[in-house]
Amino acid sequence: MTTTLTATPVGTESQLVIAPMLIVLVAAAATLFLGRHPRARAAVSLAAGVAYGLAVAAIDWYIVLAPSAPGIATYQVGDWPAPFGITLVADGLSAFMLTMVAVLGIGSLVFSTRRLPGGEGRSYYFPLFHFLALGVTGAFLTGDLFNLFVWFEVMLMASYVFVAYSGGPQHTRAAFWYVALNLLASAVFLLGVGGIYATTGTLNMADLAQRLADPAAYGLEPVPVVGLLGMLLSVFAIKAGLVPFQFWIPTAYRAAPPQITALLAGATKKVGIYAIIRLSFTVFAGAEVAVDLPLPVVDAAIAGDSPLPFVGAALLVMGAGSILVGGIGAVGRDSMEGVFAYSSIGQVGFIAVPVGIAATTVDPALREFAIIAALVFALNHTLAKGLLFLAVGTVRSATGTSRFTDLGGLAGRSPPLAIAVFIASLALVGIPPLSGFFGKFLVFDVAARARAGPVIVLLLVGSLLTIAYATRMWNRSFWGARTDAVDAATIDPVQVGVLAVLAATIVVVGIGFDPVYEFAETAAEAALDTDAYVDAVDPQEVSDLDGSSGGDH
Amino acid sequence: MTAIALAAAVGALFALGTFLLLRRDLIRVVWGLAIISQAANVYLLAMGGIAPATADSVPVLAGHGEGVPETADPLVQALVLTAIVIGFGMTAFALVLSYRVYEEHDTLDVTELGDRE
Hints:
Number of domains of chain A: 1
Low-confidence stretches of chain A: 1-8, 543-553
Number of strands of chain B: 0
Helix content of chain B: 55-70%
Number of domains of chain B: 1
Strand content of chain B: under 5%
Protein name (chain B): Cation:proton antiporter
Helix content of chain A: over 70%
Shape of chain B: elongated
Main location (chain B): membrane
Membrane topology (chain B): Multi-pass membrane protein
Largest interface: A-B, 42 and 46 residues
Number of helices of chain B: 4
Mean pLDDT of chain B: 82
Number of helices of chain A: 23
Radius of gyration of chain A: 23 Å
Pfam family, one (chain B): Oxidored_q2
Subcellular location (chain B): Cell membrane
CATH topology of chain B: Helix Hairpins
Order of helices and strands of chain B: HHHH
CATH class of chain B: Mainly Alpha
Strand order of the largest sheet of chain A: 1-2
Distance between the termini of chain B: 52 Å
Oligomer: heterodimer
Strand content of chain A: under 5%
Shape of chain A: globular
CATH architecture of chain B: Orthogonal Bundle
């Protein structure tokens, strides 16, 4: 008999898709065996970071941005064709997310080589770092729902250890609740995945999109999918730290080493956002399910036969809650990382609101524009918040504290550090010409185009709160009289160098914004183009296989 | 009949897990998490369908020619196997952490942990 499970030729682009994952996997294994050689460990880690950055840059160029680039490439693991094997997919959206994570990850890695936190666990720091990067990269690249669950777990396992890393009583307690919450979330994730498999008979995202768009041809009853998508959304909202799932963030962010907190805020949060965008728009948008929700906030008519209005309503409510809870919480904190942790809850609300508008609107142009706005804002959040958490690391390793009562006059003590933090704070607030200005401007523009008055008011309140807590953080720690801790501080030049490079990136992204916007536009187009995604993955018709077996059953 | 029994089992496991999860003793919380993740595994297994499978419901079998034996859906079994391994690892980690919590706080009572901010 002729089998359709034949190998497809593997091209260079195909191999590029898996390259970043292989690099961090090999680096994690290598650094694990170099436990006794700190210098070699750090050198291998740095080399892996550079190689990772190059691989991501190659994906950006050869798959997405070059004039004759295909825009999307797939790697069928083990040469099993979709939907049977695990498919890895790199398209504009994955590439955009990977690029953000690579920039911040390399910065955090260089930062980590200077001063490793903690005592006994020191030799496991770099392997865990690479496993965290592996989980994040796998989640961005996988095209399979269950495989997404697996990469989430890889990412979480590393982050559990990091939250418990410093080993004090508060750290252990924070880690226990973080682990318990995420174990519960993993069970819910499994329930959602199992339900989707029972409803549609597939877990491959492209196959899923294909089947949901034409349920009659596959004999499906797609209605349960809306509820199952709701379960998955709640899991992703936990990872993204959206209200009402934000409560674990302040303690976990305080417990983890600052250079890891930068990654938790800059990378694992974005995995939640990425999964929401990918599943809602690429996979489930075409599902023919009538959802009728009264949602007076957005003027555009909510109709259509897809679960998107449901997603949109949920995201708008969660985003609004996040902006208020995060902003109000940040104003009253008594330490730098407390302010930034709450600020991180608020900022992710600014990402969720445009995604929510994209899901509720029926206007395709506005939908694409709203996703672009969310991505640009996410980019700014990764750069600025990553820089700020790394700055907390610098301040903590120099002065031994990050509480406002013990800080003051840092600006005079280290002008480069102060300038970097100042630039990142201004980017959070949204001052032109920094990257934050465009993020915030686009989000307001989206709300205005959707003629959503209450959303604009909400965004204004959120922005005012941002100004309030950024100013307060700055006044309390960088101005005022020098404290003893600040006077005795020795500030590491390499750490400040990393901060300076990130600050320069924020300025460069703001000044040369056109190519960044085009990249975000490509990413948003990729997120919305289900057909291209299905074509690239090319899930075979299951009925073809039945035919080839002779049909003697 | 099997479907009803499975549904009852999954429901009972979730109920028991949730009950334990809300206890004050950390070890019971870990037990609750372990039971809930097992409940999710049983549910996942049931989602593959409990009817004897043919090449129609298990398409991979079609590639193996004639004489396909009756079998349950192998995909969910592979998924559950993965989920079980991950769940065991996580439960072990949670147990180690609760031991560490006991070492550092001298208690496993959730409410007392909260007081020692």
